[in-house]
Amino acid sequence: MNCRKISFKHIVYILRRGCHILVEFSDSSVNALGSVSKEFEACFKGIREEMDDHLEAINSNTNEIMSNYEYLCQLDSRLSKVEEKLDELLLAAGIHSSSKYHDFKAPRLTKSEQELYEFLLKADKPVACRELAFRLALTQTLLAEYLTALIEKGIPVGKRYSGSDILVSLDARFQHEMLARQQLKKLNVI
């Protein structure tokens, strides 16, 4: 709205409800009221157009959100079916879904931690720390740090002593279940 000084005898009140304009004025300001009325009308028309644009954008976003919600519901349904099939396969493989590792979510591992984890996962028997460090080209100290990091991230690494050697392995049930998951992923079941 163009802001001009208009001299009125009394104050102009704009009420929020109904946008009524109450004006007490003299005969000389009748023309001024006509121009103010046109400016208000133009301002309200501009506001109305902006509000219509916002409403259209909101409706468009609402449709997109509803479409995404329907898609997520379909994905949830499919995931439930995959989970049921996984439970059946694990049961058939002799792994009970009541296992404490059934809901295990793999933590984020560094590249070196991932290599160590993969090596231990594929190992048939416990591996001596010296051999593990040699095969992964790590120092004993660095290997110990990575093993500690795996344990802190919830991966069940077991240690036992055989003479002067420290043998390291994953928990047998955990190892079996994680290998089964890898096989299922290769088959594109998961």
What would your notes on this structure say?
The chain has helices spanning 30-92, 111-122, 129-135, 140-152, 172-186; strands at 13-14, 21-22, 127-128, 157-162, 165-170. The chain has two domains: 1-92, no CATH class; 111-186, Winged helix-like DNA-binding domain superfamily/Winged helix DNA-binding domain (Arc Repressor Mutant, subunit A, Orthogonal Bundle), CATH 1.10.10.10. The protein has 190 residues and is mostly helical. The chain has a three-stranded antiparallel sheet with strand order 3-5-4. It has a two-stranded antiparallel ribbon with strand order 1-2. It contains five helices and five strands, in the order ββααβααββα.
Task: Give a quick rundown of the structure.
The chain contains 5 helices and 5 strands. With 190 residues, it is mainly alpha-helical. Residues 1-28 have low confidence and may be disordered.
Helix content: 55-70%
Strand content: 5-15%
Number of strands: 5
Task: Work out the helix count.
Answer: 5
Question: What is the alpha-carbon Rg in Å?
Answer: 36 Å
Q: Output the strand order for the largest sheet.
A: 3-5-4
Largest sheet: 3 strands, antiparallel
Q: In the residues, how many domains can be counted?
A: 2
Average of pLDDT:
75
Blueprint of the fold:
Layout lengths: L12 E2 L6 E2 L7 H63 L18 H12 L4 E2 H7 L4 H13 L4 E6 L2 E6 L1 H15 L4
Descriptive tags:
single chain; 190 residues; mainly alpha; Arc Repressor Mutant, subunit A; 2 domains; three-stranded antiparallel sheet; two-stranded antiparallel sheet; 5 helices; disordered N terminus
